[in-house]
Specification:
- The chain is an alpha/beta fold.
- It has a single domain, classed as Alpha-Beta Barrel (TIM Barrel).
- 37% of the residues lie in helices and 21% in strands.
- It has seven helices and seven strands, in the order ααβββαβαβαβααβ.
- The strands form two sheets. It has a five-stranded parallel β-sheet with strand order 1-4-5-6-7. The chain has a two-stranded parallel sheet with strand order 2-3.
- α4 links the parallel β4 and β5.
- α4 packs parallel to α5.
- The chain starts with 6 loop residues before the first helix and ends with a strand.
- Bound molecules: iron/sulfur cluster.
- Iron/sulfur cluster (SF4) binds next to loops.
Length: 211
Amino acid sequence: MKTIFNKSLIEKYDKPGPRYTSYPPATEFTESVGKEDYKKKLLESNQGKRPLSLYIHIPFCESACWFCGCNVIISHRKDVSKRYLDYLYREMELLGRYLDKSRKVVQIHWGGGTPNFLTVEEMEELFSKMKENFSVDEDAEISVEIDPRYLSEGQLETLRQLGFNRVSMGLQDLDEEVQRAINRIQPESLMRDVMKQLRELGFKSINIDLV
Ligand code: SF4
């Protein structure tokens, strides 16, 4: 029988390794880069007039998936996001001071965590703060990660009205045994319903994550 797997390769990588979601990774951040360096780099970056991408991290989730390696805070209390958003608005305001307003934001991504942890009102407020502090291009790709298990009334409609055109959601696995093993129970019917709604609302691009 033909061998499909390379055993020595599996043994070589069968150990915990770094998970790179940004470069340089957070483990390499040091105090040697201070706020003046940061300000200088931001101002220097304006010289090329290059467009901008914005990533907004919403770290809250209602329940933990066992496979997850993201930076998350598990909470059932909806009010935890308030303080976080206040700091986020402050950070956007500070950044907005140093970035040239003629630089268009051509990509926006709300990731997490679970951005649909936010209420409809919080989504609207966050979006309007983004527009206050940055020049969002009218053709920008605007995407959001959602957890279909915790979607509440009006959230998808609100995101679409705000201008979101791309959605990414975790399907993970349809096998119920796998779902139990990863602590993510999510019926296929729910996925189909959400997928249908997204198509009807006119989201241009829909991505699903598999575990
Ligand atoms: S919902 Fe997403 S971010 Fe939250 S714990 Fe599960 S996989 Fe991680």
